[in-house]
Design a protein that fits this description.
Elements lengths: L2 H12 L21 H18 L2 H7 L5 H20 L5 H5 L2 H24 L2 H8 L2 H8 L10 H19 L11 H20 L11 H19 L7 H12 L5 H11 L2 H7 L2 H12 L7 H28 L1
Helix pairs in contact: 2-13, 2-14, 2-15, 3-12, 4-11, 4-12, 6-7, 6-10, 6-11, 7-9, 7-10, 8-9, 8-10, 8-14, 9-14, 9-15, 9-16, 14-16, 15-16
């Protein structure tokens, strides 16, 4: 456990109610109780990932014709390298001490999501595949009810559904979607993609003892698997100067750095609220494309803004009130 996680544990214990024999209070499944304020701060850290994911479309367009698996391998290599010094401070003890389940979850979540997403794009129209894949925020909210001590209230589900409606408008441009049988494989892959990421995000809560620094190993393993997929399915494209910078930006942000803050948020924050605010990613992404002249502003964007913002406010109202009462 690194210094930051040790400090986190101390803060949790300090903010926990006293348990039997004067010891620190215990939460569900024997985990330390977490104060609402501490949980809200962790949620804010996780939400940084949403801001970073908003730049994914912009940076990806700047990479030109680099194939998706090659791009994934390069970006995740950057994402792994930036966290490797902290992960190796103990001389590899962190990697050796990770539970097997954490390895499976981390690598399966990061690589599995991208593998099935690209498979969906190869076998279905991008709009259809993207809309199905972006069911994951709603699935996170629903699956969170399976966690010990979590309760799914109507405002959480309503907020997530409002966000889904806003995302539907963004992805389709208000034109609707026409699913066709010949794209069944692509639709299925997109659905698996959504399930993989939502299961990873929710199940990550089961490993609060695994330091966020371990994400560096998961990123590097994902980069290696993506490189194998690239060699099997794609032709290598040599990046030029600006494309190298775009790849670096992806690794530092949406396809690398974002997974460190998402790991912290899903382990220690409000998973239901994180699922709902994740719908801001496509909205902010569209805003960046509009601001840089790569997309046009339209009424679906405006309506989506209202729906997603309203959904996030509805889902977060209880958490914000609880944090204010405890101050």
């Amino acid at each position: 456990m690194d210094a930051r996680d040790t400090q986190d544990a101390r803060e949790k214990t300090a903010g926990a109610p006293a348990g039997p024999a004067g010891g620190p209070g215990r939460g569900p499944a024997g985990t330390p109780a977490v104060s609402p304020g501490r949980r809200l701060r962790a949620t804010g850290v996780g939400a940084v990932a949403v801001l970073l994911w908003a730049s994914l479309a912009l940076f990806t367009t700047l990479t030109g014709t680099i194939p998706p698996f090659q791009l994934t391998a390069m970006a995740f290599a950057v994402g792994g390298v930036i966290g490797l010094p902290r992960a190796l401070r103990g001389g590899g003890a962190l990697a050796r001490g990770l539970p097997p389940g954490a390895w499976v979850l981390g690598i399966g979540g990061l690589f599995g999501y991208h593998f099935f997403y690209f498979l969906a794009l190869r076998n279905a129209p991008p709009v259809d595949a993207g809309l199905i894949a972006y069911l994951w925020p709603l699935l996170i909210v629903v699956f969170s009810a399976l966690l010990p001590g979590e309760r799914l209230r109507w405002w959480h589900t309503a907020g997530a559904l409002l966000g889904l409606g806003g995302t539907f408008l963004l992805v389709t441009g208000g034109q609707g979607v026409h699913f066709r049988g010949e794209y069944l494989l692509g639709y299925a892959a997109a659905a698996v993609c959504a399930v993989v990421w939502s299961v990873y995000s929710v199940a990550n809560r089961r490993y609060p003892q695994v330091p966020t620094d371990a994400v560096a190993f998961f990123c590097l393993a994902t980069a290696a698997l993506a490189a194998v997929a690239h060699l099997l399915f794609e032709t290598t494209v040599r990046p030029d100067g600006w494309q190298w910078l775009a790849v670096l930006a992806l690794g530092l942000g949406p396809v690398g750095g974002a997974f460190y803050v998402w790991d912290h948020g899903t382990k220690h924050g409000d998973i239901r609220l994180l699922g709902t605010v994740s719908y801001f990613a496509p909205l902010l992404s569209t805003g960046l494309l509009v601001a840089t002249g790569r997309a046009d502003a339209s009424w679906p964007v405006a309506v989506a803004c209202v729906l997603i913002t309203g959904g996030a406010m509805l889902a977060s109202a209880e958490a914000l009130r609880s944090a204010r009462r405890r101050r």
